[in-house]
Sequence to fold (316 residues):
Amino acid sequence: MIVNTKRLFEHAYGKYAIGAYNINNAEQIVGLFQGNIDSQAPFIVQISKGARKYTSTIMLEGLIRSANEMFPEAIFAVHLDHGDEATCMDCINSGFYSSVMIDASALDFEENIATTKRVVDAAHPRGIVVEAELGKLGGVEEHVSVSDADAKLTDPDSVREFVDRTNVDSLAVAIGTSHGAFKFTGSQSLHFDVLEEIQKRVPGFPLVMHGSSSVPQEEVARINAAGGDLKGAKGVDATQFRQAAKLGVTKINIDTDGRLVWTRVHREYFRDHPAEFDFRPIGKIFMKEYASFIAQKNELLGSAGQLESVRAFLKK
Ligand code: G3H
Ligand code: 13P
Ligand code: ZN
Fold:
């Protein structure tokens, strides 16, 4: 069942974080739904601009609708990840999305507010929820590439004004994470002190943590042992998710870790089965491994086991 993102936030706030997982193809979508059902968790299906281009928006939408039929128990929201203004408007008009992210974090404060507000004004009359970003995360996204030197933590003192003037529903904050498999290089680290200050300025308001893959070292070692070259890859300590949730982080974005599962499964399989050329046996293994990865993540997020409680809450 596709639901309103804000309602999921209301249920989760201060208790646990909802996993927001990026998807690109059928195998990933089946694994995602299976993993969330296995762990009885609500979740957010996240679609980036790059994913919309790769599989086509029509195909992605069709796959999600089909997964919704295959897994009638599932409770999830459909979200545009890192949208620019035009893509947000496209998603708002499509009627398929529960929420959109307008990422105007590369613009200055006033322009970020003006852009975010235009998206909010278009989205709210249609019941669509909006996430914005304040501060600059490091790493690479589809239309924004920020070097470590340019990354900028969110200034807690600017958050209240930003939220009040835009009327946005949730806010991605930069607290030291970055996108991709090479986090915390140079001077980066996770800043709970900043997060705490932000929560004090906007108590009860849902915050979002991007760049939250943990890049498990065991996964990296297996990939490297099977011919990969990911030396120095590093991520967020997933045992800190619960602490972040208590401080108002209600949505945690994970993409890279899923890509690592895909890479490990495929590298090991083809190393061990050099004569294989059928994509179905390996596709089956990937769906199973991806489902188990999602279920494990949900345990760390605290969203595992919340499904029936969310269902009851949504009926109220
Ligand atoms: O934050 C970016 C997400 O990891 C999506 O990545 O733009 O390569 O699909 P993508
Ligand atoms: P990771 O690269 O850490 O998985 O972050 C994903 C993300 O923030 C998507 O918006
Ligand atoms: Zn992101």
Remarks:
- The first helix runs from residue 5 to 12.
